[in-house]
Design brief:
heteropentamer, A mainly alpha (296), B alpha/beta (620), C alpha+beta (380), D alpha/beta (233), E alpha/beta (189), C: 380 residues, alpha+beta, Cytochrome-c3 Hydrogenase, chain B, three-stranded antiparallel sheet, 14 helices, 13% strand, D: 233 residues, Rossmann fold, five-stranded parallel sheet, 37% helix, disordered C terminus
Chain lengths: 296, 620, 380, 233, 189
Amino acid sequence: MTSVTELLAELLLMPFIAFVVGLAMVLMYRKIAARLQRRIGPPLLQPIYDIVKLYGKETQISHGLIHDIGLVMAVGGYVAAEIFLPVPGMDGIADKGGIITLSYVLMVPSLGLALGVGQCANPNGSIGISRALTAMLAYDIPFIIVVFGVATHYQSTSLVGMIEYQQIHQWGIFEMPLLAVAGLFALQGMMGKQPFEIYVAPAEIATGPMVEMSGKYMGGLFVMQTFQLYTAGVLYTSLFLGGGANWFEFLVKIFIVVAIPMSVALVFPRYRTEDMVRIMWKWPVMVALIGIAFVL
Amino acid sequence: MKKIKYDDLGSVLNPLKNLQFFARKPVTEPLGPRPAAEIYRGFHLNDMEKCIGCSTCQKICDNAAITMVKIPHLKEDPVNGIRNLRPAIDYGRCCWCALCVDICPVGAIELSREYVHTCNGDEVDSYFVLPQEKGMHGTFEEKGWTKTETNDLLDRKRLPMGEMTPDERGDNFDEIVNGFTPEQAILEASRCVQCGMCHDSCPTHMHAPEYIRAIWKGNVEEAVEWMYESNPFSHVCGRVCTHRCESACSLNQAGLPQGSEPIAIRWLKRYAMDAVPHERIKEIAARKKTDQKTGQKIAVIGAGPAGLTAAFDLVKQGHEVQVYEALAKAGGMTRYGIPYYRLPDDMLDRDVDVIVSMGVSIQYNIRIGKDISMEQLHKDYDAVILAIGLQSGRSTRIPGSEHEDVHSAVELLRRIGSVRDDMNTAEDLDFKVPHSAVVIGGGNVAMDIGRSLARYQKQQYNQVNMTITAIDALENFPADDVEIKESLEEGITIIPSRGPQEVVLENGKIKALKTWRVESVFDADGRFAPQYDESDEQLYDVEMVVEAIGQMAEMELLGEQLTEQLEWQRGRLKVAEDGATSVDWLWSAGDCVNGPDVVHAVADGHRVAESINKAFSVQR
Amino acid sequence: MRPENYQVVSLPNSDEYELFIGPNHPGIEGNYAFKLKLDGDRVISGKADAGYLHRGFEKLMEGRLWIQNLAIVPRICVPDPVPMEVVYSLTVEDIEKTEVPLRAQWIRVMQLELSRIASHLFTFGGHAATTGMYTPSYWGVADRDLALDLFEELTGGRVYHIYNIPGGVRRDIPNGFLDRLSDYLDYLQTRQNDYDNLLFTNQVFVKRARDIGVLNQEQALEWGVTGPNLRATGLAFDVRRDDPYLIYEQLDFDIPVQSAGDCLSRILVRRDELFQSVRILRQIIKHLPSVKGPVRSPIPNPLAWNVAKGESYCRVESSKGELAYYTVSDGGDKPYRVHVRGASSMHAVQVLENMSVGQRIEDVAQIMFSLDACPPEVDR
Amino acid sequence: MSKIGNIPVNAQNGKKRTNPLAGVFDELVQFCQSRSMFMLHYCTGCGAIELPPAMTSRFDMERLGIQPMVTPRQADILLITGYVSVKTLKRVILTYEQMQSPKYVIGICSCTVNGGMYWQSYATAKVLNEYLPVDVYIAGCMPRPEAVIEGLRRLMGNIENGKGIAWKDYFQRYDHYLGNQQHLFGNDWQTPTDIIGEARHYGLETEQTCGEHSRILEQHQQPLEPYKMRIKL
Amino acid sequence: MKCDEINAWLDALLSEINEIEVTRKSERRVRVDVPASSLPALLELLKGKASYVHLSAISCVDWPGDEEFELVYHCWSYEAKSLLSAHTRIPRNSAEEFAHYVSVYDIYKPAAFFERDIYEMFGVYFESSPYMEKFILTEWNGPPPMRKDFDAEAYVNDTFNWADYHPQWLQDIEEEGGGIAIRPEDIRL
């Protein structure tokens, strides 16, 4: 009985923690941007203001039921992903799902978004979503290879297991540096940051999928972004940096992991779509395959 | 400079070098407005005391952003060129180009360094601002764009006009100034900012801005048409007007670092009148005349500026006008009081000719009261205008002033004037030109007689021995500055602040004029009560003394009966604002009412004509 | 009458569709619109839609006095307003045969070059932003702002200077201005490395910009392209050198040229030009103190100024290309006709329309910014 | 009134709040609204040139929680930066109607108030608040970045105090605005957004929402057809 | 120098054609007055033979008094470094019907832009110009606005309202007996 209550509490607590930490990451991104751009940047609670403001909008425009469902899928997919990601002291159902389930769950938001945005009848949105799917295709290949390699190395598909292994032995990044590098590329793509920021592209397609989003829907996307950053950070930390023995260590690691792509993003323009696919399928895949060869 | 070749592929690592900016400080300015630059063009400031309400800023404003607002509690002084209008700026139009600052004739409007103004959607009224010394929000921030000599857009210097040198003019009565050439006139006219201060200050409200603009456009006929709107004596006024317009001119305002000279409005008028052929002027003047006859008959006594102007107006309205003149020619004081070198007779003749050509009939050498009685006029005419001017000079009444060689300036000028046709010689004069003379008085009449006599002296004796003395200090002389300057140039001695005490006689002839130094002219209450320093006594050895301290009217012509009927005030005929006397058929106009001045007389003539017209229309 | 944007027209039985870029779109420079007919993400045809910034300048100028027009000419090209003021003054001076004092000419050149620097810094940021990199636009605008501070000190206005006047300039330079200008140039040169690292030698950017929007020299001449865009095709033509005005003949500067005619060459030409302007300004800082005399030859009272009858066509090299005014005076107090040949009127409309064909949608915005089109010059 | 097809409106905010905590909640929302404003960067006129400095490093608007947004759907503030030509005004109105309430309009520069320096121009609209409700005006031609920021701070203050409600006016007095729009654009003017429908839906309808001008609109209003599109992947 | 040669050659050539009038205003500015019928031929010659390859602008000036439009073609030669302005006059029609002239698009491509501009602003129809349609003034129904007989100020006053200010300070002054004395529109020169 207690374990069920505990589990339920964890299932509620883990997304909540993810949300709070994600907000901090959004803030960090904006602060990093501000610093590189030689300015001060937003106040500390800015991400919260934005989300509350968006949810507080008094009029809404919906583009039909599918649009709403798509949005729910997008946010829900990430919420679901959070309970597969172990954090210090809480495993959720991470030991049950494992990394394979997680990679499937992580596709849900993109598909949900595609479903929702398709209803907007805005060509910019449609182009954006087609680019988003292309981008997913591009970074998923190295990502899957990396996941495969890591799983092979640890002989486990359970994140909990991997973390335990790393905490006993040493961090994955030292054991499989090539895979870690390839993972970093995939992470950049997954987070949709420059040079792989092809589907938002304000100057080209007016923020693509978000073009018709307003009010709560936009708020939903903002929430999704917080989860996305958190997920990316935790996943990479779990795979290569040995998770966290305690909360301090854990948070330091995930923030650093997220800060790297963020900083890089600010000094690069975006690739064209086909360039992104070409590069993603060339360098990270090559590196990852060599990495696998070492692992095997 | 480092070259970048086109073929340089660059590097993926190069941009990462910029991550060093994590260690650099932001360049962001603190929140809140920064102080603006020293010559920033922010919101307007206006020095309410300095501003004269000329509305020049309004004209240069390319955005029609400036509205002139009348502020009753401010000073309104048209004679000195000050209006109680002030510019209000519409910030819904303004573009902060500061042209208003650059053009302001007095440098009153300036821009501050204040630049923040925001308001809620329903407070747009706050965009309409009356700039004052304190700035838009009552918090003075420093001045920004102000006027300097470099960015002043106005042409401050008057065009020099050709005139005779003192040597050339000293012994003859030729006209001194040459007048503008067309090029000069257009250039001078282009300096005008069209403020209309001249119009306001002019007694007869001549349309100076309009005719100056017409001159600038090269259209002198239009200019003449504008002049005849309000002044049938434009030839005369173009030469001898007291030009209050020029003192009121916006460009005459003091307080500018670079100095500033008014537009030569009088000379422009003269130019335009001279540039149009006489016959054409007659046609232009006749344009406004009605064809209808009203059948009303009016008699005008005195063919001076006031009488003829009234006659001109009344004839235009279709009335029948008869003018009676006691002397042989028309013009009154302008003919018999102003020397030839200032106003050649033929110019006056032209003005009179235009008026006559309108249908005014003038009978000369008829003295009312002697040849025709006032009662007779009353019977024959529906209205009578008394415009007799000030014919006799006032006397100082000092001991000895009854002597035959003590003359009044008016009388002497009349005697000179009646032989004017060939006045280049002194032979025709009915008095002997004195070797030495002194004129008492500091007005224009004193200068006129002094300079006229000096010319005769120069002709006859080849030397000038002429003194002008007056009770006022030199800077308080009523005469024009230019008259004083020219008098001095012509060798006349001017001795200010002297009170004449006695004409010293010896052997029945004048020996000298005794004067004391004046300590003060007015008492504490501002009344005329001169105080003398008796110890400072001077004697001027002269043959002739001329008194030029003022004139008065000769009212004998009215006859006893009428004199009793009329109301009088301190010895002067009581006249209402519009020229009506207390008798319903008699009006009075001109110098005899208002004191000596051509343009005032013209204004008076208009006023009386209008008043008569109104009275007639009431009758009808 | 239904407004057209945000409304999508479907073309039956075809994969083609129309897409509107602008007037309200981050990929458009200013208030301007571009209608694209697309097949997938490939542009089949492009059509410019201007007039959103149309104010009827030429009509307005016919209704205002010669001097009043000074306030409105800089508005014709907002990012680079000084050439507008100068060329308008030049035409009036040419008609009136006014001599401009030498010192005023030096000051004018100083402004023109400073304005060119400001404008190019702005363009770098815009160009980079269309490729997804925002940091250069933050830097560029901030560095441009320092130039605006200098302008504010010199002219009293940050963006609209209204400082040139027929006959010269309205005021002399303030004390110590040249020192501060010199400091600014020093600062710009220290920043050169940062910009090079971030933008001009950034491999991703170079890849993105190379071979995109190619305009060869033949096409450029045929379509009347001028300015940096022409120089990026290999023709070293610059009005400053080939049809000199003011005191450019006395200055020593190079004309940067690239030959490929693509987006990358264009931005490289602008980069080099910026530092040539720095070089010119250095010469001015050195010489200006020795050029004494007034800064303005007097003009008549502006309220009553009839400019002599005549016409004049004057050209200057603005940051966007050849800028020309054709001014006709009928001897009145207002211009009879002013025709503005906007520097970017060629490449913002016809050239862009032609170049966009066959491009991918992601490059359209980049091409537009790399041409440095300035819509208000087209609309006037 | 005919229904416009493709943009249905959700029934969500119509109910009155009875919860005592609603007051606190409202204040929180207002506070957040004032601290987080997305600005539609639409360069309607020359004043837009001072917005990049205001947004970027030197004056950093993000300090106040203001950031540019690219589509009207996401934006809260519509900055009218200077003159609007009639052609632009149509797009501005369209854009405004597509923004989600609460939305704010800021009129920058002289031109939005009384025509500015283009008052003689046949091509520009003169008084902005005849066509759209304006929340805050910022004076200047053009206003410096600092002045723009001061204006935005005034707007923040207004929102925090619950005074930023000009957008309701557009629903409540739609007939007035529509009349002015029709005067300029002709009687066949129509936008794709059904303002009257929205006003009814959100309970903002007053007697002045509909009137003589909206009746003209009804006569010719046509629903927008939904758009079918394929994109080759 | 090459450019001197071109200039000399051009001067010689132009002096032979007697319909046209050549004024050399300065070293780099030539004004040519040419009848409307021979302008295209002249431009063809200039571009083909005299290296005037760059059409800088086409300006149109309305002379309602003469019932004519003046078209000015400004051509620049990169080699001769000289700008030639070819002036020609075509008859002007009332605002309802267009004036007509031929397009020079086949000689100079940039002409299309300027011709469209003149078409919109003055109502001159250029035969065989590719874009004889509205571009800037797509939403304008009035007469071609740049014609001298179109009174923009009157149109504006008819069409638009002005802000109606009545601030407190003005009310105070009005109570005192003052108020607005001269409105800006009353005084424009």
